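Ticket #4471: structure export looks truncated?
Reporter: QA, pipeline team
Priority: medium

Steps to reproduce: submit the single chain below to the structure queue and open the exported record.
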Amino acid sequence: MKKVAVIKGDGTGPELIRETISVLRAAGTKAEFVDCDAGAEWWDKNGGPSFIPDGSWKVIEGSACCLKGPTTTLPIPGTPRSVAVSIRQRMNLYANVRPVRTFSGQEGPLGKVDMVLVREATEGLYAGIEHRLSDDVAIAVRLVTKEKSTKVARFAFEEAKRRGWKKVVAITKANILKVTDGLFLDSVRGVSKRYPGIDLEDLFLDNFAQQLVKNPQRFDRTVVVGTNLFMDVMSEEASGLIGSIGMVYSANFGDKFAMFEPAHGSTPKYRGKDKVNPTATVLSGAWMLDYIGESKPSRAIFSAVRKVVQEGKDVTYDLGGKSGTRAMARAIIRKL
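Actual output as written to the record:
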């Protein structure tokens, strides 16, 4: 039995995690779920230098992986860094992975798409190195290393290889950020030499953003890789191609640990209203089951979710339906 650290999160996180655990158990998981505190709401009551208490770190470090609900990060100087960034950095989860694939029955106005976005998740501007030089001047340091760039590039090419895809696209602004993005791009090119059957294309960030809404099918069966901030923004844009950020599940991988989470935020305005789409959280949990060796229930959940979305009868408002979080989760369980 594998132990899974569970962070319920803030806002709508607890209800999303509750329904997700129900789906995972209905699918037959044997995992042991251990709750641990973390998030802005916990910090607001308890304070301290981190959104994650020491006791929760012990649970996380003693588990096979982590299932995390959406958490709130306060945009106020002097407050702790986000839960996700803290775990990525401490557990060295260098690859954040977000599949973006159209669900049948939810085709967007720009057509069907199928791509995977991979971002380096421990450094870049998210390293959090900021300084206030005066009342009128503040700076941020963008950290890019060859080690992490190489690791995330290798992950991207391995993901393409695993899927049988033949292309990786690297996103940079190397024409402007010549040193940092130059180092990143050189690292990706070095890795690509070890994968002769997979083509590498490099695009500037602004060009990629434009093409993503002009001709997104150009990136079908493609793994897109880039630095932390760039790919965070681009994966949000890409989520619009499949109708809702509530459909985008994600994972953060290191060499020995992984964290699974929905790509969206905690949406505190919907807390307790039984309204938010559970798909991203449920599928993050299903992906987690595959990671711990429970591939059969994982596949069953993915299949059940696809059926519920395609039928369109028991889906949430963002998918054109009238069901709530709980009702959609129950519909997924019935399909199991």
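Status: closed, not a bug. The export was complete when the record was re-opened. Leaving a note from the reviewer for reference: The chain is about 40% helix and 20% strand.
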